[in-house]
Design a protein that fits this description.
- This is Arsenate reductase.
- Keywords: Oxidoreductase.
- With about 120 residues, the chain is of the alpha+beta class.
- It contains 5 helices and 4 strands, in the order E-H-E-H-H-H-E-E-H.
- A hairpin with a 5-residue loop joins strand 3 and strand 4.
- The longest helix is centred in the N-terminal third of the chain and has 13 residues.
- The protein is globular.
């Protein structure tokens, strides 16, 4: 299991605590320090069944600076969004957990985290 976290995020800390309580083995990826590549983001999005704008934190300062709210949300714009997320990882919704079976969730609540536990 792998969890992408921002240690300053309370939802990330909560998810890590739940994983610890469950005693599952996992790897922490501090995605702000080790940003995912565009290929990694594309793979995660495919597992999530989402588009990049679905996991974008549009309220962040970087989103406003890029003008993301005006970007098209179309298949043709998908690569542009993925590249923006890779270049500005603060825009990625968190935490994202990928279970050993490949199941991936944006685990913003306790129920989501628990759904990935064995």
């Amino acid at each position: 299991m792998e969890i992408w976290v921002n240690p300053r995020c309370s939802k990330c800390r909560s998810a890590v605590s739940l994983l610890d309580e469950a005693g599952v083995a996992y790897t922490v990826r501090r995605y702000l320090d080790e940003p995912p590549t565009p290929a990694e983001l594309d793979a995660v999005l495919k597992r999530l069944g989402l588009d990049p704008w679905d996991i974008t934190r549009t309220g962040e300062k970087a989103a406003a600076e890029l003008g993301l709210k005006s970007w098209p949300r179309t298949p043709d714009a998908r690569t542009r969004w993925i590249d923006a997320l890779a270049a500005n990882p603060v825009l990625i919704q968190r935490p994202i957990i990928t279970a050993d079976d490949g199941t991936t969730l944006v685990a913003r609540d306790e129920e989501s985290v628990r759904s990935l536990l064995p």
